Amino acid sequence: MSTVSIVIPVYNGAKTIARTLESILKQTYQDLEIIVINDGSKDNTLEVVAGFEDPRIKVCSYPNGGLPVARNRGIDNATGEFISFVDADDLWSQDKIECQVNALNRDEKAGVAYSWTAFIDEYDNFLYACVPLHHAGDVYPALLVRNFIANGSNILVRRSIVEEVGQFDPNLHSVEDWEYYLRLAARCNFSVVKKHQIYYRKSSQAMSASVPRMESYGLTVIERAFSQAPKDLQYLKPRSLSKLYRYLALQCVRNSSSREDLAVATQKLTKSILNSPRSLLERDTQRLTVKLFILNTLPQDWAKSLIERLGDKPPVVLQ
């Protein structure tokens, strides 16, 4: 039995899963089992995976059930003391698992370890990195406000905690990782590895069409979380709503192709500010407000050029 089980849910991931597997096989920590959950792929995903002749790779094929269901099937097949998840288009640094295992071994009270995230394009080129956050120990209040873990390819969790908390909610088709992290944080401490070790791939395909879905499920998660949160944390709900609406506005701006997209972005940003006026003091809100003003007032070509100069995020040096 391996110490760490790595779950890779994949649906039609033939174009990227080879690079994901390579980043896992290059881990400095080698006591692994790699569980590929083929979620009803219709491309040649299975052929690509079969090209890796490593006995640690186990492939389990099922009818398509969606990402939460695929992760749960991975949990069912996992035998390790620790479990980690990685989507079939994301990458890890070579020391990701080693650092996270060491973090949990150093802190017996911690049930989850996470690292910082950087973003890459379709060709593995670096785009930008998340601003480092240092939440550790009781991270429940911070997670109520926002999903600072950023994605579903990050955490390493003790199997014993998974058995206590349960699995991903199969009825959530967006932000299901945030909902799961909240349940984990309500039960155990988190440990942070202060390195950018997750390389999250951003697709060139427009995401604006998925904004209504993200909003719907995001609101569901927030309402559920605060219905269960203690009274002394209820004051965080407006800030949580504000972060959600600002994120939705950002998605609209990043993928805007029409005045309608910009109108939706303005509406979402307005909701963000109304829920938490103090967010106007935050740099991310200020930058987004400036971008929206530029896009709404200048000719499209000029606006796009100026937005590119402003950049997607403030530069962050990888550590």
Structure, explained:
By secondary structure, the chain is α/β, with parallel strands linked by helices. The chain has two domains: 4-201, Spore Coat Polysaccharide Biosynthesis Protein SpsA, Chain A; 208-310, no CATH class. Helix content is 44%, strand content 18%. The chain is built from twelve helices and nine strands. The protein has helices at 17-25, 45-50, 67-77, 96-106, 140-145, 159-165, 176-185, 211-228, 237-254, 259-275, 283-297, 300-310; strands at residues 4-10, 32-39, 57-62, 82-85, 91-92, 110-120, 126-129, 156-158, 189-201. Strands 1, 2, 3, 4, 5, 6, 7, 8 and 9 form a nine-stranded mixed sheet that branches. A hairpin with a 5-residue loop joins strand 6 and strand 7. Helix 7 (176-185) runs parallel beside helix 8 and helix 8 (211-228) runs antiparallel to helix 9. The two termini are 33 Å apart.
Structural class comes to alpha/beta
Order of helices and strands: EHEHEHEEHEEHEHHEHHHHH
End-to-end Cα distance: 33 Å
Q: Share of helix among residues?
A: 40-55%
How many DSSP H or I helices? 12
Q: What composes the largest sheet?
A: 9 strands, mixed
Broad shape: globular
Report the average pLDDT across residues.
92
- CATH fold name of the largest domain, please? Spore Coat Polysaccharide Biosynthesis Protein SpsA, Chain A
CATH class of the largest domain: Alpha Beta
Radius of gyration: 20 Å
- Number of strand segments: 9
Let me know the CATH homologous superfamily of the largest domain. Spore Coat Polysaccharide Biosynthesis Protein SpsA, Chain A
